[in-house]
Specification:
The complex is a heterodimer of chains A (486) and B (218). Helices cover 78% and strands 1% of the residues of chain A. Chain A is mainly alpha-helical. In chain B, α6 packs antiparallel against α7. Chain B is globular, with a radius of gyration of 18 Å.
Chain lengths: 486, 218
């Protein structure tokens, strides 16, 4: 039964990718894309219910493993992938209307969009550390041509940088995986089971600590490149700013989470083997550095998508920091933050996408008065910005509050650093978004009705999570935190 | 048994030598040929390890390496440089001696890093993890020092060779399903790199990456 449910989850985007590879240039390709994403979302919901009811499961000869931790990311990934496909339908048509994209480019986009979803879901559900690596690399390969979709010099440069840097990063992660396999082989023997996470998790106390330590450094640096941790982040703002907005939304909202999930899987093993806080300290260091550096870079940005890309680095740094602290509260907060950040950041990118289309530029000084031309875009952008800056009553306030109070209790010296960085980020982003939303307008009308339902749907969810967390959801997160050794 | 160890050691040193040769090679055509030779050495060493340890799945890995890294990828690259008309291109590399010295430093670093791990291994090829890590780092250095797209990609693929060598020397190879997945990723990546070469050339009129330094935070 679980085999079937998992197969539905993975085969739907695969089928979608194949169908769109054939029919991607038809006029109804956008609807087909949304339909396939919707089916994937339904499959994810079914799988999630199953895991919540009956606990962690293995499937397909133990090649796949689903527990409360990764199933929450599966549900989130499938949901945001679906809403982004709804957003991209009018967005990409407007881009085509403006002459920025041709039908062949859209064909490539739709097909790759589905395959990218497949790669992320495989990376999340795989039990095999080697296959996780293969799927992470596949996620880069499917998005790299989407970053250069506009074929402008800047977009090609961004895509090349993304490809080379993530390629090098992921190669280091492969070396880490090889070291992990080397340590595992001595305990579990040769063959297929020595890379299966569930088996590794059972024997983690017996894994050679020196090897695991080195392996974790390579894995963190490798997958950390994908998460966008400073100083490995330099591909991220370029790729987000130059690629089409739906791609920025899924890269920022989803791919970074998937990479972090791979790091967390490794961290559980390393903690078990070492019995020290080595992995946590490393993650806290990288996390804190990312929060501070990203906050400092925020005020210097002129391009709106680039600015929100730096904001993603900041938030992923915060999540990495919280996971690094460990403990039930911090881990719970980190997962909550991953959820609300994904929802809010993708909502912001949707609103930004339409604002940029209306203004005809990504330069913030030339985007003015969104509230006049389109109150919905204006409100979406304003509320999204307030949410991402951690204003109550949105969910990010709750998760940031939990992270900072835990930090205050366990690592008091980090609190002022975090608070100052969040303050700088607030001043930088709010100061720049405010005139974009209010002020005199220069924008023009769009040829297609923009899709703003996803924006408000996401923001509503974030608001609900901030005001009231349903007990079963809190329970679910708590169980997941316990699985991560929190 | 002693002969096989000696053969593997010799092949490993050849691998490292080729990595250094690639670091200093200025002609694109020779660089691709060096890459093919590296693949051949890798395939041979995998074959010898398979023979001496009687690991059957390693025969498949050796065959896969031969097919992918000696035949398909070099053929693809040759085809690409012919189509792009950069077959006889010579890159001006500044400071080859300095690069070489940095390379030697990296080798020493890699050997030091790998030493505690090598001592744990019972495998006959345990001394080679350091060499594998060294060739990964040398390829990384090569990617950093090159200003042109094709040599950067050759560096990327050579890095994958070093990783593969690490997997066979430290652990008798990863499980076959993982190796197949990695091979597929590398193949797809090479195709996408090919597409990129044309996009870069069309947009920038050359394959020189130093033209692409517009995206910066000021």
């Amino acid at each position: 039964m679980i085999d079937l449910q998992l197969m539905a989850l993975l085969l739907t985007p695969l089928l979608g990718g194949l169908l769109l590879a054939v029919f991607g240039s038809r006029s109804w390709a956008a609807e087909l894309n949304s339909l396939m994403s919707f089916c994937t979302f339904i499959a994810a919901v079914v799988l999630t219910m199953r895991v919540i009811d009956s606990g962690p499961q293995v499937a397909f000869n133990e090649q796949f493993f689903i527990d409360q931790f990764n199933v929450f990311l599966v549900a989130l990934t499938a949901f945001v992938a679906f809403t982004t496909s709804l957003f991209s339908r009018p967005y990409m048509r407007i881009e085509q209307h403006h002459g920025k994209l041709s039908t062949q480019m859209l064909h490539l986009y739709y097909s790759m969009y589905q395959l990218f979803t497949l790669a992320m879901l495989t990376a999340l559900t795989s039990n095999n550390m080697g296959i996780i690596w293969v799927a992470m690399e596949a996620a880069t390969l499917t998005t790299v041509l989407l970053v250069s979709l506009y074929r402008t010099p800047a977009s090609i440069e961004a895509a090349w940088k993304y490809f080379i840097l993530c390629g090098v990063g992921i190669a280091l992660a492969l070396f880490g995986t090889i070291l992990l396999y080397f340590a595992a082989e001595r305990v579990l023997g040769e063959g297929g089971t020595a890379l299966l996470w569930t088996h590794l998790n059972q024997v983690k106390g017996g894994l050679e600590p020196t090897v695991l330590k080195l392996a974790f450094v390579f894995l963190l640096v490798g997958y950390g490149t994908k998460i966008g941790l400073v100083p490995l982040h330099s591909w991220l703002p370029d790729a987000h700013a130059e690629g089409p907005t739906p791609v920025s939304a899924v890269l920022s909202g989803l791919l970074l989470n998937v990479a972090l999930c791979a790091v967390m899987r490794s961290k559980v093993l390393v903690d078990g083997s070492l019995g020290t806080h080595f992995a946590g300290n490393l993650m806290m260091g990288f996390g804190l550095l990312s929060v501070v550096v990203a906050a400092l870079f925020l005020s210097r940005q002129k391009d709106i998508k680039r600015m929100f890309a730096y904001s993603s680095i900041e938030h992923m740094g915060l999540v990495t920091f919280a996971f690094g602290m460990g403990g039930p509260v911090a881990t719970f907060a980190a997962m909550l933050h991953m959820t609300v950040h994904s929802l809010t950041k993708s909502a912001i990118f949707f609103a930004v996408g339409h604002a940029v289309q209306k203004a005809g530029t990504q330069q913030m000084e030339n985007i003015r008065g969104m509230m006049q031309v389109s109150p919905t875009v204006g409100w979406g952008l304003m509320l999204g910005t307030l949410a991402i800056l951690g204003m109550p009553p949105f969910g990010i306030f709750a998760s940031e509050f939990l992270i900072i109070t835990t930090a205050m209790h366990d690592y008091p010296w980090t609190t002022p650093i975090l608070l100052i960085a969040l303050g700088i980020a607030f001043a930088a982003i709010f100061g720049k978004v405010q005139p974009i939303v209010f002020g005199e307008t220069t924008a023009h009308r769009l040829p297609h009705q923009p899709a703003l339902i996803p924006v408000f749907a996401h923001l509503l969810l974030v608001l609900i999570l901030g005001l009231y967390m349903p007990p079963y959801l809190a329970d679910w997160y708590r169980q997941a935190a316990a699985l991560l050794g929190g | 048994m002693t002969y096989t160890i000696q053969i593997i050691n010799m092949l490993a040193s050849m691998l490292l030598l080729i990595a250094f040769a690639m670091l200093s090679q200025r002609r694109i055509l020779s660089l691709i040929n060096l890459f093919a030779w590296q693949g051949l050495v890798l395939s041979l060493s995998t074959f010898v390890v398979a023979y001496s340890t009687d690991q059957h799945h390693l025969y498949y890995s050796a065959g896969l390496t031969l097919l992918l890294k000696v035949l398909v990828l070099p053929w693809l690259l040759h085809r690409l440089i012919r189509k792009l008309n950069v077959r006889w291109d010579v890159e001006t590399l500044i400071n080859i001696p300095t690069t070489m010295l940095v390379g030697i430093g990296l080798v020493i670093f890699a050997f030091n890093l790998a030493a505690p791990i090598s001592q744990l291994s019972e495998s006959i090829t345990r001394g080679l993890i350091g060499i594998a890590l060294a060739s990964v780092l040398l390829s990384l250095l090569m990617m950093l020092t090159r200003r042109k797209a094709v040599p950067q990609v050759v560096g990327f693929l050579a890095m994958e060779n070093g990783l593969f060598f690490a997997a066979t020397s430290a652990t008798h190879g990863m499980p076959l399903v993982v190796e197949l997945g990695i091979a597929l990723d590398v193949l797809v990546a090479t195709f996408i790199f090919g597409i990129f070469f044309f996009q870069i050339r069309e947009t920038f009129d050359s394959l020189d990456i130093s033209n692409m330094e517009k995206l910066k935070d000021d």
